[in-house]
Amino acid sequence: MDVILLERIAKLGQMGETVKVRDGFARNYLLPLGKALRANESNKKRFESERATLEARNLERKSEAQTVAEKLDGKAFVIVRSAGETGQLYGSVAARDIVETLSSEGFNVGRNQVELNTPIKAIGLHNVVLHLHAEVEITIVVNVARSADEAERQTKGESLTSADAIYGVDEDALKPEDFFDPEADGQDEDDA
């Protein structure tokens, strides 16, 4: 189906372009959300008459997204979750959880604006991309930790999943002799 785009859509085209898309994509997404019109003569005339209004609205949305992006720039958000000794979460952190954290900090971001291909399943610092507008994209840091204290330590660069963080042991100081004693198994070096 041919449609006229009413706004820029990533990997599809710019505002005003006539593009060919699959029928289901047009019927179920583009047309109901007002992102496109069917490409026929009456809609082409309608688009041309409303073009200035659409461009002004798009510019306004973009400037709002730029403002939010400037406020979010360089921010890190802490999410506290239960996790095992190895740092594996007992649940996961999904886009919904990130949106809830952002809204508690005063940022209004939709779940569809969070680009998270797979849920976060381990503690640590994770970069998450937010698409605030078709032309505005920003990366935030999500700090997933077991407590606020651990989140602070992770921010400073301390690893919480290595042996020294879990057991209080310096991995580099360990030697094989520390784990294996040839006399402990009943054999002397002379018997071997």
From TrEMBL:
Domain Ribosomal protein L9, residue spans: 13-40
GO biological process: translation
InterPro entries: Ribosomal_bL9 (IPR000244), Ribosomal_bL9/RNase_H1_N (IPR009027), Ribosomal_bL9_bac/chp (IPR020594), Ribosomal_bL9_C (IPR020069), Ribosomal_bL9_C_sf (IPR036791), Ribosomal_bL9_N (IPR020070), Ribosomal_bL9_N_sf (IPR036935)
Keyword Ribonucleoprotein: yes
GO terms for MF: rRNA binding; structural constituent of ribosome
Superkingdom per UniProt: Bacteria
Keywords assigned: Ribonucleoprotein, Ribosomal protein, RNA-binding, rRNA-binding
Pfam families linked to this entry: Ribosomal_L9_C, Ribosomal_L9_N
CC per GO annotation: ribonucleoprotein complex; ribosome
Family statement drawn from the similarity comment of this UniProt entry: Belongs to the bacterial ribosomal protein bL9 family.
Function: Binds to the 23S rRNA.
Stated name of the protein: Large ribosomal subunit protein bL9
